[in-house]
Amino acid sequence: MEDEEEIERLVLGHSPKFRGIVQTAEKQLRTGKGLHHDDFWREFESKEPQ
Fold first, then answer.
1. Count of domains for the chain
2. How far apart are CA 43 and CA 37, in angstroms?
3. Predicted local distance difference test score (pLDDT) of residue 34
4. Are 36 and 30 in contact (CB under 8 A)?
5. Residue-wise DSSP of 3-43
């Protein structure tokens, strides 16, 4: 396996901590607590680089 992205996907896919983060995010989205795509980018672009 030489593709670094594939290695990263494999490692993250087996990480309990990362899987917990994803599950929490999915639950928030299902319950309407997610952030709309446009709102995310508006907030992201309004932050000044540090």
1. 1
2. 10
3. 85
4. no
5. -HHHHHHHHHHT-HHHHHHHHHHHHHHHTT----HHHHHHH
